[in-house]
Structure formats: structure tokens, C-alpha cells
Specification:
The structure is a homodimer. By secondary structure, chain A is of the alpha/beta class. The first copy, chain A, has two domains: 166 residues, 3-Layer(aba) Sandwich (Rossmann fold); 148 residues, 2-Layer Sandwich (Dihydrodipicolinate Reductase, domain 2), CATH 3.30.360. Chain A has twelve helices and twelve strands. In chain A, the strands form two sheets. Chain A has a six-stranded mixed β-sheet, with helices on both faces. In chain A, strands 8-10-9-7-11-12 form a six-stranded mixed β-sheet. In chain A, strand 1, helix 1 and strand 2 form a beta-alpha-beta unit. In chain A, helix 1 crosses helix 12 and helix 5 runs parallel beside helix 10. Chain A is globular. The two termini of chain A are 15 Å apart. The interface between A and B is large, with 52 and 52 residues. Chains A, B: InterPro entries: Asp/hSer_DH_NAD-bd, HDH_cat, HDH_CS, HDH_short, NAD(P)-bd_dom_sf. Chains A, B: GO terms for molecular function: homoserine dehydrogenase activity; NADP binding. Chains A, B: Belongs to the homoserine dehydrogenase family. Chains A, B: Pathway: Amino-acid biosynthesis; L-threonine biosynthesis; L-threonine from L-aspartate: step 3/5; Amino-acid biosynthesis; L-methionine biosynthesis via de novo pathway; L-homoserine from L-aspartate: step 3/3. Chains A, B: Keywords: Amino-acid biosynthesis, Methionine biosynthesis, NADP, Oxidoreductase, Threonine biosynthesis.
């Protein structure tokens, strides 16, 4: 049985989800002959530390009542100084700078610690550098949770499709947009009304720009482009059109012709002619990509196996926590 | 760079596909730092052997002109005596006995050789015994190609969903049935006519019983039940209803209500109440499982990640070869 000390930085819904699952059912890791012990949890204001293993229910209680206890150490201090094997970096995404997650990841990798993250910012901004750092220090940098939550895109590309060249990836990577587009056409409601409703239901943020203008999808696409295809691109390299100017009339016209409109992210490496774009596109209603509601879907064109698609929940704290756990299991079951 | 000597037993379309891919583009395996060298190929009548690596184009030429050269060794002799690291067992499936593949697999595992197979018969009949044998001899027995060709079901269950309990699997595991059912309703043609057409197009065998009566789907379900859920079931344990008595009228009625009819295999372990069945079932047209044509689809209900679906080509010699290669890559990248 190998034991891994885990530090969780960021204690929002995803961080809490990871902590809960680890605390409640360590037995599910038996298969990997691994044990995970959480030795540090931090949020933006405080931290809880215990080298013998944190009492999760007490940490969750502190969080319910506000923030974690204030301590003299900042999150960065914890990342730099505490003794752990895996950093679970689940702080909020900053699309432009990648901070503060970027600094945490750099510090952890430099110290020779594995990193598992759900944070798109650092990867979209500095993938190449971070990958280099992880290789240099002979540790893993895993980020299944960054593109499509519970939908195992990177995992699929890493193992099951190994040796089978992936030519392109296109898909629906934002549940908020998919919910809005689905709801508009099935209920025949205008964009603004559905957006308000989505906010009320928690499917859209108070400021939905990040989702509806296609930035979230573009970040995921950048990570896929760099990680799966070895490209070296940034957010500014993506052609982005969001869904905010789509009218119900346009959706109806498409529907009459047998199509639905979906916000599609597509990456297709081809040197100077590479495609890297996010835009609303027509999808035949009978096509497997025409998934409804908040679902995400990714279609991989492969050389030998034809088209392979994976569909799953793109968001949700438990689903995202599940992707993080899957990465932790991968580390635990790796032999190096 | 690790080098693996490969013996291919069965030189039909799948065996030839594997040989072609290995011969033509060994470079694709660079990522796994592995090299595969084919040292033996056998079919039911003859064999080609060369410890330094077989000239594939010459073997393919022999095959085009009839069978491989007759030699004094049978396939079983080759499996028992030749020096190889991985046996690729791709002989035809016998649902009831699993032979001759079963004997080949037993011999190879007993000799401490890895086995990769696309043959459903041996696994559906003797999974538990074969798994025991592989563990005893510390080698891998992999069979991604058995359930849904290029659709990576086992791989998905093995790594990306590790640590995330799978509660049930249901899906479309037979492209022939899916083609027939899709074509009947989209073209409004009766079963017999579509079946004849499917035979002409090569989507159905001259004797289609195995596919249309649900036996193929049931075999795949048995392998999933045993391999993913650790059950110990056989073909006789599956409740099977095929599609041969489905009428166009029934499909039309379903369609009017917003449903399509699909031949669904479902496994849901639950002790005495376990479900293991193959039957035509109604699927809402908007449900991701409502895939058309010859596509296969599998929906996994998971505890943490919700429903995850994978869609892919279920048949085709290159697609099946691709699944076999993926398994070979997995062996090459494993550290034990």
C-alpha cells in the first residue's frame, strides 16, 4: 500500500468535493493499492494543516461558517514548505494571467511534487513551460478536470487512443451555452429570457461573459491543442465567436432544416493551416454531437479507429472532483 | 526502447490489419518507447515464422493467393513453442466453446506470455479461469477489441474511471442490428428487405442469426459483466431477445411518440437482483444513446461522474486492429 500526502489549495466546491470523497471512502482506492492523506487545505484567507491527516469534517465546518482558520502561512507558503506528495490545485481560474494557480503549480513542480489541477488559466497560459518543469522534476502534471469536467478527454487521448493518431478534436465544452441553446429552441424562448433563467438555476454565473462569449470553451481548446497535439498556442490564437447574438429565429430556421445550433470548439493541427476556433455551428439533429441540456461532448477524429465520441457532464463540483480523483489514481498506479 | 516479439494467430481481416499497421508505421509507437516485431503468423492451414521479423508484404501476398504456406507446425504448436512476448489471438469466435482460441490463450498465458485478443468466445466462456491464469503468470490478458471494436469501453473503465464506481453499463454493441433498425425507420422498409440489403453491403453475415438474435451483444455483455464488475456469468445467464420479429409498424408507432427502437444490452450488478439482458428497447430520439447507422454506443452510470457515454465504430477490421494496437501499447507502456 503506497500512501500519498495531499495538499489541497483552493477550498471552494471542487476542493471540498475532493476532500469529501477522499475522507468518506478511501476504500475505493484499494484497486490502486493507494491511500491518500490530506495534510493541508488552504483557501484565500486561511489554512488547516496536520501532517497526520486533517479532520475533514472540522475543515468543512469552518468553511460553512466563513473561511478556514487564519494562520500565519499563506497558500504560497504552504505550497512551498509543507511536506506533501500531490498538490491538488483548485483555485479560481484567471484566463489572462493564470494566477494565483500558476505560481502554486510552478512551486510544487519545482519541489518535485505531482500536481493535479482543475484550473484552466495556468495551463492555457503556460502549458509548455509547466510541462517542461514537470519532466525536469520527473513528476506528473495532470488536468483531466480542465476540459469538460467528468468527460475523460485527456485520459482517452493518453491511454486508450495511444498509438492511434488523433487528427482533430471538436466538441461542446461549455454546459452553460449548451443549456441556453437547447432551452431556446425546445421552449421557443429568446436568448435574454433563457439566460436569466439559467442564472436563477445556477447554470450561468451572475456575469456570464466568460461562458457565453466562448472564452471558457477557448481556454479548454488551448489546453487540448497544447496537451494532445503538442501545439504551442495561447488564448489570443483562438478565433472566438460566442452565442450572445444568436436569435431564436436563427435557431428555428436551422431546426426546420434538421439542424441544431451548438457552440463548437475545434482544434485541427496542420502547421500554418491549423484550425483553432470557437463558434456557433450547425449540427444535424441526428448527429451524436447534438447532445442536449448541460451535457458536454467531444468528437475525436482518429486515423485508425474512425470517429470516437465521449459525452459527459461538463460541470458540477462532484463531477469535477471525480476527474481530479481519477488523475490522483493515475499517479498512484504509475510505477515511476 | 523495449522490443516485443509478436505472434499473430488467425490471419483474417483483423490479423492482417494488425500486421499492416505494425509493418507500415512502427514510428507511431515511439511514444511508448516500444518496438513490435512480428515473429510468427498462423492461419488455420499454415504459418510463417521468422525470429528476425517476418516480411509482412510476402505473408499478405501468400494470403491473397490462398492461405499461408503449409508448415509442419500447427497454430497450437506455434503458440506452445515459438519464442514471442505477446500473442495476438484473432481467430474466429465460437460462442459456445470458445475454441480454438481458448486453447491458444491458455497455452500462451501458462507460458508467461501476454495475450491480446478480439475473440469473444474464450472470454465469455472462461473469463475467471483466464484472468486467474494471467495473474498467476504475472502477464496481461487484454481484450479491448471484444466489446465494440474501436469504442474504448474497457480502457475507459480501467483507467479514466478508476476510483469512480461504475454502477451499470448499457448500450448498443452490435452495428448490424443498429444499421437494420436505423434503416427500417428512416427508409420505411420492412425487416426482411433491409436485412437483404445489409447482407449485400457486407453489414450482415450470410447467416445473420448471431447478430440479429442478440447473441453477439450478449457475449459482449458477459465479458463486460465479468471484466468490469467482477461477476461470474456465462452466455446462458443473459436474457436475450433479438430484433428479428420487429415490425416496421412498431418502429413507426415508437417514432410518432418521439422514440427510436434500439437493441440494448444492459448489465447492472446487484447480487440476486442483477440485470443482464439484451432486448429491443425504446430510446428517446434526443437521448445520446439514439445513435444511428452502424455506430455502437455505451453509457456508463458512475457514482461520482454521473453518466459517461462513449460512441464509436463497433466493427471494421482496421477499427478492431486499432483496439488491439491500443492494448499492445498498454502492455508496452506498463512497467511490470
Amino acid at each position: 500500500m503506497r500512501s500519498f500526502k495531499v495538499a489541497i489549495v483552493g477550498f471552494g466546491s471542487v476542493g471540498q468535493g475532493v476532500a469529501k470523497v477522499i475522507a468518506s471512502r478511501n476504500g475505493i482506492f484499494d484497486e490502486a493499492h493507494a491511500e491518500f492523506k490530506i495534510v493541508a487545505i488552504t483557501d484565500s484567507k486561511g489554512a488547516v494543516l496536520d501532517p497526520k491527516g486533517i479532520d475533514i469534517s472540522s475543515a468543512l465546518k469552518q468553511k460553512r461558517e466563513g473561511t478556514l482558520k487564519r494562520v500565519s502561512m499563506s497558500s504560497l507558503d504552504v505550497v512551498k514548505n509543507v511536506d506533501y506528495d500531490i498538490l491538488v490545485e483548485v483555485t479560481p481560474t484567471d484566463a489572462r494571467t493564470g494566477e494565483p494557480g500558476l505560481s502554486y503549480i510552478i512551486e510544487a513542480l519545482s519541489r518535485g511534487k505531482h500536481v493535479v489541477t482543475s484550473n484552466k488559466g495556468p495551463l492555457a497560459n503556460q502549458y509548455k513551460m509547466l510541462l517542461g518543469l514537470s519532466k525536469e522534476n520527473n513528476v506528473k502534471l495532470l488536468f483531466e478536470a480542465t476540459a469538460g469536467g467528468a468527460m475523460p478527454v485527456f485520459n482517452l487521448a493518453r491511454t486508450p487512443l495511444a498509438g492511434n493518431k488523433i487528427k482533430s478534436i471538436m466538441g461542446i465544452f461549455n454546459g452553460t451555452c449548451n443549456y441556453i441553446l437547447t432551452r431556446m429552441i425546445t421552449e421557443e424562448l429568446p436568448y435574454d429570457m433563457v439566460l436569466s433563467e439559467a442564472k436563477e438555476l445556477g447554470y450561468a454565473e451572475a456575469d456570464p461573459t466568460y461562458d457565453v462569449e466562448g472564452i471558457d470553451t477557448a481556454l479548454k481548446l488551448v489546453i487540448l491543442a497544447n496537451a494532445v497535439f503538442g501545439m504551442d498556442v495561447k488564448l489570443d490564437d483562438v478565433d472566438i465567436v460566442g452565442i450572445s447574438s444568436i436569435t431564436l429565429d436563427a435557431l428555428k430556421l436551422a431546426s426546420d432544416d434538421g439542424y441544431v445550433v451548438k457552440l463548437i470548439g475545434e482544434v485541427r493541427p496542420n502547421g500554418e493551416e491549423s484550425i483553432l476556433r470557437v463558434s456557433p455551428r450547425l449540427v444535424p439533429k441526428t448527429h451524436p454531437l447534438a447532445v442536449q441540456g448541460t451535457l458536454n461532448a467531444a468528437l475525436m477524429q482518429t486515423e485508425l479507429a474512425g470517429d470516437i465520441m465521449v459525452i459527459g457532464k461538463g460541470a458540477g463540483s462532484i463531477e469535477t472532483a471525480s476527474a481530479i480523483l481519477s488523475d490522483m489514481m493515475y499517479i498512484a498506479s504509475s510505477k515511476d
